[in-house]
Amino acid sequence: MAEFMELEGQDGVRMAWNVIPGTKQEASNCVVPVSAVYTPIKPFPNMPVLPYAPLRCRNCRSVLNPFSIVDFAAKIWICPFCFQRNHFPPHYASISDENLPAELFPQYTTIEYQSPGEASSIPPVFMFVVDTSIIEEEMAFLKSALSQAIGLLPDNSLVGLITFGTLVHVHELGFGTIPKTYVFKGSKDVSKEQLLEQMNFFLIKPKPPTGVIAGARDGLSSESIARFLLPASDCEFALNSILEELQKDPWPTPVDQRASRCSGTALSIAASLLGACVPGSGARILAFIGGPSTEGPGAIVSKNLSDPIRSHKDLDKDSAPHYHKAVKFYEALAKQLVHQGHVLDLFACALDQVGVAELKVAVEKTGGLVVLAESFGHSVFKDSLRRVFRSEDKDLGLSSNGIFEINCSKDIKVQGILGPCASLEKKGPLCSDTIVGQGSTSAWKMCGLDQATSLCLIFEIVKKEIPDATLQSSNNQFYFQFLTYYQHSTAEMRLRVTSLSRRWVAGPGSIQDLIAGFDQEAAAVVMARLVSFKMEIEAEFDPIRWLDKALIHMCSRFGDYQKDSPSSFSLSPRFSIFPQFMFHLRRSQFVQVFNNSPDETAYFRMILNRENVANSVVMIQPSLISYSFQSAPEPALLDVAAIAADRILLLDSYFTIVIFHGSTIAQWRKAGYHNQPEHQAFAQLLQAPRDDADAIINERFPVPRLVICDQHGSQLQLEMSKTSEMFRLQPALSL
Prior knowledge:
By secondary structure, this protein is of the alpha+beta class. The protein folds into four domains: 1-116 and 398-464 and 475-518, Immunoglobulin-like (Sandwich), CATH 2.60.40; 125-205 and 219-388, 3-Layer(aba) Sandwich (Rossmann fold); 519-621, Up-down Bundle (Four Helix Bundle (Hemerythrin (Met), subunit A)), CATH 1.20.120.730; 622-732, Severin. It is 32% helix and 22% strand. The strands form six sheets. Strands 2, 4, 8, 17, 19, 20, 22 and 23 form an eight-stranded mixed β-sheet that branches. Strands 9, 10, 11, 12, 13, 14, 15 and 16 form an eight-stranded mixed β-sheet that branches. Helix 7 (263-277) packs parallel to helix 9 (323-340). The longest helix has 20 residues, at 680-699. It is globular and about 75 Å long. It starts with a helix and ends in a 7-residue tail after the last helix.
C-alpha cells in the first residue's frame, strides 16, 4: 500500500489497477473497473509553477510531458496519445539532453502553468442567503456565526445579502441612509428579467434587447451592481447592523402547520442576481437553511403538519408528491449556476429534514460545500463555517471556474466521472457508449473546487483481441493526461497538468501482474461510489446482492483454492483486506438507509463523492486506536475485544470522533489523579487521544462531531441512540 500512497503524493492519483488489464474481456473479468481517484489541485510543495503557456499537440491538444518522445536534433516531439509529430517553437531552440525544460523532467509528471496577465479582475463574491423562519434561539446562534464569518472575509471581496421566510428580501447594502430591501413573493417564481425590472436596474441605462443576457458587460452599470454587491470593507458596518436587527419571520404560523419557508425562490433570486451582476466570476451562494421548504418552487412538503416529510420508503414507493417536482426545479437551477460559473454552498441546520436530498444535484454539479448539523449553535456548523474563510494554515484553498479535461491512449475510453462536476458535453472519440455519472464527454465544468476535492474517473478498455507477445513487450504502456484549468485562490488563472503511464498486461500469466498492481483501498472507494450512484439511478437495484456478486467473482478470479475444499481458500496480501472493506461497505450508511433520513443519506454520499481515498476509507471502515500504559498508541480491531477497563479508545468514523474511556480510566479521571504531579504519565495518557482528535478535526471539512464518553456511562448510550453512525458501530463499543 505504501507505494500507492507514494504515487498519490507525487501526482494526487490513486488507481484501483496500477497494472491495467489489456483487453475488454480481461477488464470485465477483473470486476472492479479500470478507474482513478484524482485530486485535481492537491498541494505539492515541490511542484514547479511555470510562468509561460504550455506547449500543446496540434492534433489532440495534449500538453508536452515527460512521456513525449523528443528528437533534439530536429526539434520535434511526438505526442504519446495520438503519435502526432509536433515542431518546437523558436523559444525552445536551446533544448538538449543537458538542457531540458521543466515539463520534460521525469520527476515532474505533475506541473502547473501560470500565464502572465491571466488574472481575474473580479474579486471573490459571496452572496449570503439566510433563512429567518427559525426559532429565536436558532436565530441568535446564526446571527452570531454570520457576524464572525463577515469579519473573516477578505477586504476586497464583494458581499450581498438575501433573507427569506414567507417572503424573499433582497437587501440593498449600497443604500447607506436607511436599511432598504426589495421584497418578492415566496410562492411565485421570479425570472431574471422580472427581477432586474423590479429592482430598477435599468433606470440609468436602457434595458438591453429581448434575448440578450444582462450583465456587467452588456447593459448594467457598475453603480447598479454596487447597490447589492459591495466590498466587505465598505459594507461590514451595514451588514452587521442588518444582522443585529434581523428578526424571526413575522408571519404567524398556526399550531397545526409548518413555518412558511420559500428556500427555492430565494436561491433562484440569488442565482439570477449574480448571473446579472457578475457572470463567470466564480461567485458563491452560501445558503443557511433551518427547516423544510414549504412555499413556492422547490417545496419538499406541504405546510400541514399532518403530512409527514418524505422518507426512504416514500421515495421507493414513488409516493412523495413534492420530490420529483423539487428535483426538477433544482436541476434547472444547477444548469443555470453552471452556465454562470457560480457555486452553491449549503449549510443545513435543523432537527428536521430541510431538503438536502433535493438540493443535492445543485450543490454537486456546482462543486459546492455542504454541512449538515442539528443546530446553528452546534460546533459542527460553527467550526465548519470558520474553516471556509480561514486564510491561515489548513485553509480549504477554495478555487473556482475550473475546467477538467482528459486525454488517454486510443485503446481507452472514458465512461464518466463520479464527483462534484458537470458535463460540458464535449463529445469525441474518447467517450464511451456506456455512461457512468457525468459521462458522454471528455471535458467537465468545476465551478468550485478546493485542495481536497477528488474525482472518480471510470474508464473502459476497448481493445478486444490479445496482441502477440512481441507487440505486447514493445508497446505495453497506457497513457493518461488530466488537465485542470482553474482560477487559483490568488485570482491567477492556472493550468495543472498530470501525466501518467501504466503498464498493461493480457493473456495467460497476467493474473500475478494484475495482483501486484491492485490497490485495495482505491478499489473499495470506487465500489462505494459506484454502488451509491447505482442506488440513486437504478430502480429495483439490490446493492447487497451486487456487492456480494462482485466480491464472489473477485475471489474466484484472484483467489487460490482447491475445489470442494473451503479451508484451502487463500488470497494474496494485495487482496486480503478488500473483503473486509466490502463487509463494512455493506453495513455502511451509503448502502443501509435504515435509521437515516433521505437528507442524511444524500449528505453522506455527497461527502463520499468529493473526498480522497484515505478519508473515504475511514467512512467505509472506521479506524480504532487504542491507548494504554502498556504500549504506544496502536490500531485495534473493530470488536468488543478492544474494550478494556484500563484503555482509552479513539474511534474515527469521519463524521463522528469518539474518545471512549474504560471504566478504570474514567474513575481515575473523576478522582482527579491527572491533576497530581506524581501522576503525569496518566495525564499524558488522557491528553494523547485528545491531541490526536484535535489534529483530525483541524484537517477535516466538514468538521466532525466530537463525543467524549465513559464505559457504562449515560453519554455513550445517548450518543448511540441518536447518532446513526454510532448505532452502526455499536457492536464495536458494546457495553
